[in-house]
Amino acid sequence: MFQTAMGSNHAEPDGQCGDRTLSFYEARARGGAALVNMGAIGVAYPHGLVMRNQVGISEDRFIPGLRRVTRAVQSHGAKIAAQLQHGGPSSTGDMIDGRPLLTPSPPTPSSSVLSGLLFDDEIEESPFGRITHAPTFRIMDKADIALVVRQFADAARRAVEAGFDGIELHAAHGFLIRSFLSPATNSRTDEYGGSVENRARFLVEIISAIRQAIGRDFPLWAKFNVVEFNIENGFTVDDACIVAQLAQRAGVDAITASSFSGSARGKGLVSGSAPMNPANYASYASKVREAVSVPVIAAGRLEIDVANDLLAAGKADFIGMGRKLLADPDLPNKVVAGTPDEIRPCIYCFLCLSEIALDRHVRCAANGMTGRESLVTHSPTKSSRKVVVVGGGPGGMETARLLDKAGHRVTLLEASGQLGGTALIAAIAYEPNGRLVAWLKRQLSKGAVDVQLGSKASLDAIKTLEPDVVIVATGAARDRPAISGAHLSHVFDGNDLRELLLGEPGNADSITRFSLATRALMASGRKLGLIGSPQLIRRASRIWMPLGKQIVIIGGDLVGLELAEFLAHRGRSVTVVDDTAKFGVGLAPLRRGAILDELETMGVVMVPGVHAITIHEKDVHCTDREGVNRAFAADNVILAKGATEDLSLVTQLRAAGFETHAVGDCRGVGYIAQAMKDAADVAATIE
C-alpha cells in the first residue's frame, strides 16, 4: 500500500522542509505505508507553485532539508518518492505575484463555482483574496518547453541526491503537463498539439531528459488522468491508454491513475482525483492496466475490500490511499495485523482538500493530530491524574480515549442513555459520520474509561468524584429560536428530533408534537432497539417517517443542508430558508459546493438572505432579499438553527477551583472537526 501524493502545505516560507513537513511524512511511514509519496515538489520554485507553503527542489539548497525527510521515512522501513510538479496555468503563486502563467495555448473560457461558495474570512485567507489583478498567460514557445524539460531533469537529479527511492512525474489534474495532454487546453498546431502522440510529446521529452540525468535503473513513474469528467473535449480513457504506452516506451516503470473534473458545478469539486463516489475512476485505471505491461497504481476512494478485489482481479498492481491515511496514518499496520475495526475512518467531508484549496495547512476532521504531528504530542503520563469528562459526543469520547491511552484515570459522564451526542443525528443525515462515532465507541469499550450513561453532570455530582481535572464537552446550547410560530405543534427543533430519532427522553412540550400512533411506534422501536441506531433509522426512514410531504427547514448551515438532502432523498418536498447571505457554514467548501449542487438537482428550494420569518399552521412566510413577500407550504417545519456556545458548567467548575477545559461546541459551534481538534489539544496539555 502506498501513501499517494498529497500536498500538505507544510513547507517553510522559503520552500525548505522543516520539522512539520518531516513529521507529517514520518507518521505515515511509521504507520506501515510501503511507500510514502512526497507530493507536489516545485521544480521551478518559486515559479509554478500551487500552494503558499510548497516544498521546492529547483536549487541545490533544498537538498539537505529533503534529505532529512527521506532519512526519517526510511528509518521506519518505508520507501519514499518525490512527486515533481509544475502548476502551469493553475499556479496560484504566479497569479499572486503577477507572473504570467505558462500554458500550451491561449486559454479557453472556463468557470469554477469555488470562489462564489466562500465566506469573507475564507476569501481573505485564500488565493482568491490575494490575487489583485487578472492573470496573464505566456504561450510556451520551444525555448520555454526546453527550459521546463531541463527543470524537471535537474529536479530529478536533486531528488536522487536527496536520497529519494523513486520519482513520480505529476502530469495530472490541472497542472502544466496535463494542460499539454488534454485537448481541452491544448489547441497547438505544431508538433506539441493535435494528435495524442503530439500532445504527449512534452511528457515524453521530460521522461527522456530525466532518464538521461538519473539513468535507466532508478524508479520513475508518471501520474496522469485516466479520464476527465465535466470537461468539454476532455482527455478520455482511450487517450490515457495511448499516453501510458508512450510513457512506458519513453522509460517509466509504472503509471499512477488519477482523474480531473471541471468545476462549473459544485459536484465537479468532488469528482476528480479525490472523489465523493467510491472507486470513481477505478474502471478507467483497469483499462489502462490492460494497455501496458508496467504496473498501475490505483487510487480514488478505494475501501479496503474494493482495493483487495482490484488486486486479486489483476486490475491494479498497487493501491494508493490519501485521505484514509490522513484520518489514520497507522491504517497499513492495522490491515496487516488483521484488525480493520481499529482503523479510524475517513468521513469524506473534504476538509483536507478544502484547506489546501484555501492555502492553509492540511487538516482532517476525523483526526485532530493530522498536519500537526510536530506541534501536538501525546506521551504516556509520568503521574496519573483523575479526570472527569462531561459529555459523550465525539469531542468527549476522543478526549477520554487519548487521556486513557496516556495512562490517566478517566470517568466519562453522559446524560443520555448512549454515546454519540448530536453526531448521532448527523450520522442519520450523513452516513460516514456514523462510522467515526462507532469507531470512538469501540475504542472506549476496549480501554479503561469508566463510562457512566444516564449521568447528568452537575457541580455537586462532579465534586463527589473528586477529579484533578474536568473536561467539559457538553455541546452547544440549542434553544428554540425566537421566531413567531416556533411553538406550534408541527414545528420540530433539535431536541424534538433527538427524541424522535434517538429515543432520548423529551420534555412535555416535545411529547405533544407527536401523534398517538407515532408515540406508540417510538415506544416499540425503543423496546426492539431500533431507535438510536443511525443505520437502522436510515433504512426504516425510506419506508416511513412521521413527517409530512412538504417540509420547510429554517437554517442553512451544515445541519440544515444535510437534513434537507436526507429528506429530499426520502421523497419530501423541501424548502430551506435562512437570514444568512450564503448557505453552508460548517461545511468544508468542496463539500459545500457538492451538497448545494445536489440539493438544486433534487429540486430543493433554497432561499438565503430572508428576514421577517413567521411560521403559520400550513406555511412559512418571509421576505426575501429583494423585498418580496414569500410563502412556502409546510406540513412540518424544522428549526435547524439557534445553536450557541454554552460555558455555564465551565464557569461554575472554575469558580469552584477545578482545573477545567472546554472541548467542542460548548465553546463555539465548530462541529466534528473542531471537537476532534480540541480533544487533541486539550489531551496534550494534561500531563
Automatic annotation (TrEMBL):
Keywords: Flavoprotein, FMN, Iron, Iron-sulfur, Metal-binding, Oxidoreductase. Residues 84-109 are annotated as: Disordered. In the N-terminal section; belongs to the NADH:flavin oxidoreductase/NADH oxidase family. Residues 3-341 form the NADH:flavin oxidoreductase/NADH oxidase N-terminal domain. InterPro entries: Aldolase_TIM, FAD/NAD-bd_sf, FAD/NAD-binding_dom, NADH:flavin_oxidoreductase, OxRdtase_FMN_N. Residues 386-660 form the FAD/NAD(P)-binding domain. Its cofactor is FMN; [4Fe-4S] cluster. It comes from the Bacteria. One of its GO terms (molecular function) is FMN binding. This is 2,4-dienoyl-CoA reductase-like NADH-dependent reductase (Old Yellow Enzyme family)/NADPH-dependent 2,4-dienoyl-CoA reductase/sulfur reductase-like enzyme. Gene3D superfamilies: Aldolase class I (3.20.20.70), FAD/NAD(P)-binding domain (3.50.50.60), NAD(P)-binding Rossmann-like Domain (3.40.50.720).
